[in-house]
Amino acid sequence: MVKVLICDDHEMVRDGLVAFMELNSEFSVVASAGDMREAIAKALVTEPEVALIDVQLETESGLDLARWFQDHQPNCKVVMLGSYVSHLAFLEAHRVGAKAFIAKSGSSMLLMNTLREVTSGATCIDTSQVHASEQVLEQSGVVALAHLSKNDKDIMHCIARGLTDKEISESLFLNIQTVRNHVSKIMSKLGKTNRTQLAILMNYVESSEGSLSGL
Hints:
This protein is of the alpha/beta class. It contains eleven helices and five strands, in the order βαβαβαβαβααααααα. The protein has a five-stranded parallel β-sheet with strand order 2-1-3-4-5, with helices on both faces.
């Protein structure tokens, strides 16, 4: 039987996955955890062969747990679960070594088939899907956003909240003209023409289950 670790911050989801897996004689859930620390502690003891990880845990990213497995238990096959498959989360999952990314809206049959495939050594993340996500993120300005300075990212967060230049100036303790200069440069770097476009871009990133760290 293949040893499986499940990490999801919702107890009901964890219990449901455990109950479902126990119906199948191919897999054995050797550990169930609600956060990264608990998952790591149990992984060190049980040494799972497959880790089923929620992308967005309550206070942390499941992608960080995927990185831990890549660094410390590279033989464990990581499968990411997400509320939906965003381009950002999908691409980062690929880059941290995940073998598959499944939306929680998918079927139980899809989950089982995917687990069987990754267990047999397959990677269920298609190269064409990776390239498509890279192009979408490049064209939308997300990749350029990832390479902005900390000050510029802080200003972007403020713009996403709808703050004016004066309010940004007061919030970040910057001269108002400095803020205006930064906003102008940010628009140029990201290929945007107004603050609304900047806000939409930042809100997309903030609502995504992925992060900018992997870009």
